[in-house]
Every structure is written in structure tokens, then in C-alpha cells.
Design brief:
The structure is a single chain. This protein has a domain at 155-161 and 168-463: Glycosyltransferase. It is 37% helix and 9% strand. It has helices at 4-20, 136-148, 157-160, 207-223, 225-230, 244-258, 296-313, 323-340, 348-354, 370-384, 387-396, 410-418, 429-447, 470-489, 492-505, 530-534, 582-598, and strands at residues 49-50, 63-66, 74-78, 84-88, 92-95, 102-107, 115-121, 124-130, 174-176, 190-191, 205-206, 270-272, 290-291. The strands form three sheets. Strands 10-9-13-12-11 form a five-stranded mixed beta sheet. A four-stranded antiparallel beta sheet has the order 1-2-6-5, with no helix packed on it. Strand 3 and strand 4 (84-88) form a beta hairpin. Helix 2 (136-148) packs antiparallel against helix 17, helix 7 (296-313) packs antiparallel against helix 8 and helix 7 (296-313) packs parallel to helix 10. The structure holds ligand G3I and ligand 9MR.
Amino acid sequence: MKNKGSILKASACLCATLLLAPGLAAQPAAGNNSISTMQQAGSRPADLIRLNQVGYYPQQEKVAVVNEGKVDAFRLIDAATGQEVLQGKPAYTATSPWSDRQRSVLDFSSLTTPGRYLLLAAGDTAEVVIRPDALQALSAGALKSFYYQRASMPLDRRYAGAWHRAAGHPDTHVLIHPNAAGPERKAGDVISSPGGWYDAGDYNKYIVNSGYSIGLMQAFYRLFPDYFAGQRADIPESGNQTPDLLDEMYYNLSWMLTMQDPADGGVYHKLTTPMFEPFIRPDECKQPRYVVSKSVTAALDFAACMAQASQLFAPYAKDYPDFADAALDAAQRAYDWAVAHPDAFYRQNDLNEVYKPEVSTGEYGDSRADDEFFWAASELYLATGRKDYRQMVEKTLPKEFSPSSWGSTAALGVFAWLNPSLKLAAEDQPLADGLKQLLLQYADRAIEGADRTPFHAPYGNRADDFGWGCLSEKCANQANALVYAYRLSGNRAYLDNARRNMDYLLGRNATGYCYITGFGVKSPLHPHHRLSASDAVAAPIPGLLVGGPNPAQQDKADYPSNLPDESYSDTLPSYASNEIAINWSAALVALASSLDALGEK
Ligand code: G3I
Ligand code: 9MR
């Protein structure tokens, strides 16, 4: 890794920290493949201070929260010398929306000198890191997590470190499920569909989530192309001429192309085993793999991200000859199929009534496709200028902005129209202006009052901020919308609030977890992730954002609390709060990269 040197140096000066504060656990060497430096989650003498455990940029707002109890004052000392550098009093206290717990908010933004410090308050001590490249390793590590999700290829020790593994799921012998049979391809016919990313903690490959994840990352690639041109994630393609982010996208895009039926342009909803595999290694899996029924949402998410990719890969024909044209052609055929089959929703229970074997893996179901039509038609119009796409955009135009998620893709269409490097025709400008207004209105609403809340963030103050996948779909994607709004408006408040949500993910929250594996002092150790659980390494694969607090607790796992923001269980069985998934990692890639690209702004 590019910054390996600085990580080693950082670990060295941590010794001083440990001498000063014996209860502190060492910071895991994020992104560094040596597991000997991966420490177990730390328990401090009093686990009260909640803050960003990864790092602050020198000029960034810096806030910590004392989770409970009255605080009169706090101080910061230099970790190496023990000298006091700052004293302060709480900026405010706020009451939890779900209990009478009072939290004190400590602001130490005036400390701007890079270094390692200890924050002392309420009898607790926590480490503070200030550095100009605060999120660089997180940004690269989040992208690298996709490499670890690659199916059908061995992961070499050179790139995967301790998490190297044998190839599994070649997917060169994939059966047409009876529910996907058509005039050309009959039930039981064999196709080849290798490569792509495993979706999540499971080993299946789902087009809806794949298309959405790529779409989100490519949207932010468009926003910061220079940043991504310089990023090195240490993947096998890092030495070529193409930015690593696009290289990693290609690994999945090339699989997605094999999911399109050449006969009619339709796209299979997923490639899956009938049932979830147990917690075994990829090379141990023996269940047959099927492609199942085509769907309108799969076709449209496929079309949208392929059209987007056709533009982004055009300059990189040396590494990817013919791909840009092939992607655009595939996108148009998939879109045409969707127009001809607007009601072809994937309904797994209905299919299971009729076809065998039954399929019980993830559904990624939907009942409306306006948002997918809007996104796909937007990308295709901007790529081709064709009038029928433009008409579909008008027909499906969103009336308000809401952050993206796998089942709600309109925001990606909005981002496409607002891409700052786009040269819009004069007649398209009013449409783009209208969408910009929607985004800015959303941003204004989202940040209102955030600076008086218990965790000093726009996210996390309403019960419906918590649920399956909330840390990405609600927290990170709210922040991503704010980053986009900042880029279009220059309004600093949007950026500051995006950083606050990132701080929430990195530890300034009710549970005190930094919710990304391998980063921070206290991070998930037992994600519901077959790859991590079945390998020989104690530490989970790094760089993965878990689903997060989910009071619905659909998995019936052992949860330490029922409060919305504490309903998180770092246990293997907890798929409803502790799984990882490519769409969640995509949100982290978008946010960590954006905030790192913006750096000291
Ligand atoms: O939208 C409702 C909301 O209105 C309601 O208040 C809330 C109350 O619980 O539920 C919300 O719906 C939830 C939905 O996620 C939100 O996106 C459902 O209860 C919940 O069951 C649903 O979970 C989905 C889960 O699959 C189960 O179907 C997740 O979104 C989705 O990310 C997840 O995806 C799985 C794949 O199927 C298989 N691979 C792993 C992947 C990650 O867990
Ligand atoms: O492991 C599965 C996970 O990837 C899914 O997100 C989740 C919801 O579809 O289901 C998990 O599988 C569980 C199954 O649904 C019920 N039995 C226990 C399985 C986990 O061990």
C-alpha cells in the first residue's frame, strides 16, 4: 500500500500512547495486510468518549461526545510528550430521543496541528488522530474490499495478504432455472457466467445490487476524476493506465454482460444457489448455480450502469478495447427489453409456487420501476441524445430528492444530470436546474438543527434512521447527497454535515463502534460474512461497512439493546445488523473518497 510507511510509523509512536494510557487498545493497521498488527477491539477503563477513531483533517470541525453523565471540563494532551495542548468545557448537552440519557458534546476544533493526542474527560481517555491524509487509507481500503469480494478467481497473497484464498465458484457451468426458460434457452441449459463480486455475506450475485453499487461509485468517480486517477488500491490491475476504481468496476461489469440473454436483451435477475450456502469457503461450495427469471429492475439497473460505464471507459480503450461500445450496445438492448416488459417484477414467492427447485436467497424485489426508468433513461439520454430516452426522463421525473438505496435509484439519475463536467444543451438546462433545486432543498432539510443533536450529526436522530443497512442507506448516502450538494453550491454547511455523518460511522455514536472492519479502535470482529468466517484468519477482511443498528432484529440474534441506535450485535448470526454488502461498501467508497478528495476544504 502506498502509505504503508506512514502506518508503520504511526504504530511506532503508538507505543508512547499505550504507555500513557494503559487501557487503550492499539489502532489496527488499517489496510496493512499484516494481521499481527490487527488488534482486538479495545475496552477502555470507562468506555464513555465517542469520537472519530480513524482521523481528523487538521482544519476539520472536531467534536467528541461523552455518552453519559455530567461533564464539567475536558482536556487534550500530546500523546508523545504528555503536555497539555487544550482545555475546554462542553459546548452543549443534549438528551437522547429514546431515553433520558444526557450526552455532552465537546468541541476541540481549535486544535489543528497534525499529531496524536489523548482526550481526557469524565474519567475516560480516548485517542485523537489529526493528519492531513486522515481518510486516505480508509478510502483505498473501502475500494479494496471489492477485490476481496471477487468470485471465480484465486486471491493472491501479494494483494490479499493474510486473506489470500483459492478460487471458488467458477460459474462456467450455470443452469437456466425453469423460471428463466425461454424459446432459445431451455430449463437446464448451461451458460457460462464467471467473475463478478459476491453480493455480501452470501456467495450469490445479484444484478439489481450490482448495477446500483456500480452506479453509485461511478457517480462519485465522475465528481472527482482527478482524485481517482491518482488513487492506488493495490489490486492486480493497479499497474495499468486505468484508474483503480474503474478497474475494479470492470471486474463486475464484465460478469454483468454475461447475464444478458443475447436472444432478447433481457437480463437475469440473479445468479444463485437455491439456498444460502453454509459458512464454508468458496472452494468448498458444491450447490448448483442457476440464473433465474429476467426482471425489469435488473434490466434497468444494468442499462443505467452500462451506459454510464460506456462514457467513463471510453478514454481507457488501451486497457479495455471495445468495452465502451459493447457496454452502450448492451445498455440499449436491456433498456428496450424493459420498455417491452414494464411489469416484469421479480417475485420470488410467486415463482416458487410454480417452479422447482425453490429459491430462497436474497430477493432484491421491487414493486415500482419509475426510479429505475428515470436513472436508466437519464444515463442513456446523456450518452446518446436520443429523444425517446428524454421523453422517459420527463415521464418519470422525481418530485423530491431522497438519498439512493438499492431499491430507490432516482438519486443516481439526479446525479447524472448534475455531473459538473457535463455540457448540457440549452433546452436541457431547465430540467437540470429543477433537479438541482430538489437536491438543495433536501440538503437544507437534512442539516437543520444537526449541530444541537446528541451526536452532532444530521443522521441518527429519528427512529427510522435505523434499520437493515441503515449505516449506508441512511447515514452514508445522506452524507453523499450533501457532498454532491456542496459541489454544486459551495455551501460549506453541507460539507461539514457530510463529515459529521462520517464521524458517526467512525465512532461518534451510541455503541462506540467504528463500523468498518479493520479500522479504528473498536470495530466489528464477527461480521455475517462467509468469506471472513470461513478463512483461517481471526480478523475479518478489512474495509467493510456493516449494516448497522436495526431495531427490527429480523435475525433474532442476541442484541445488547432494543434502543434504535444501540440495536447492533457484533455476532456472526446477526445478518440483520452485522452483515456486509457491496451496496453498503459502495456508499462508503463514495463518501470516504469524496471527503478525502476534498481534504482540507
Ligand atoms: O422499508 C421498510 C420500512 O418502511 C420499515 O419501516 C422498516 C421496518 O423494519 O422496514 C423497511 O424494509 C426493510 C428493507 O430492508 C429496507 O431496505 C425490510 O424490513 C427488510 O427486511 C429489508 O431487508 C433487506 C434484506 O435483504 C432482506 O430482504 C435489505 O434491504 C437488503 O439490503 C438485504 O439484502 C441482502 C440480500 O437479500 C442477500 N445478500 C445479502 C444482502 C444484505 O443483507
Ligand atoms: O446468510 C444470509 C444473508 O446473507 C441474508 O442477508 C439473510 C437474509 O436474506 O439471510 C441469511 O441467511 C439466513 C437465512 O435467511 C435464515 N437462516 C439462517 C441464515 C444465516 O445463517
